[in-house]
Sequence to fold (184 residues):
Amino acid sequence: MDAQDKIKAQLEENDVMLYMKGSATFPQCGFSGKAIEILKACGAKFDTVDVLSNPDIREGIKQYSNWPTIPQLYIKGEFVGGSDIMMEMYQNGELQEKIQAL
Amino acid sequence: MVTPEDIKSWIEQGIPDCRVEIKGDGQHFYAVIVSPEFAGQNRVQQHQLVYQVLGDRMKAEIHALSMQTMTPEEYAARDGAA
Fold:
């Protein structure tokens, strides 16, 4: 299975999916750590993919969304944004709404 | 090393009527980017436009860039609210 197919399968299986550096317990980058904190603050049930241990996904996800940075959040298969957009949406309540609506 | 002024000029050259306020230490940068070009675009599209302008520099020279994008109207409204 190539990276794009793997990504599609992951997004179909998980409503809230974060592509990040490291794990939820041990984020390997400040932006990924911030994204985890935001998701936890929203009370979200989420899954993560560590792009550092999946180099094909690391490149593939950037092509998938036309977005050059990690982390990347997807809800119901839709690309929501990186950590800056997550923070904006958390501050204005949009992200909590999206997650509670699931 | 990349300076905040470098990133400011790259973005301002790439986006019409764009104004950039930027801080940074050579590793991490924080930019507020204001342009009428963002009107009618959602946040993902706005950030994609900035990433597109920066191109391969996002992969190599710029380690970490945080940004907020807005139209001049949104910028004025934000100042008014502050």
Q: What stands out?
A: The longest helix of chain B spans residues 43-54. Helices of chain B lie at 4-14, 43-54, 72-81. Chain B has one domain: 4-81. The interface with chain A takes residues 43-44, 47-48, 51, 58-59, 64-68 of chain B (CB under 8 Å).
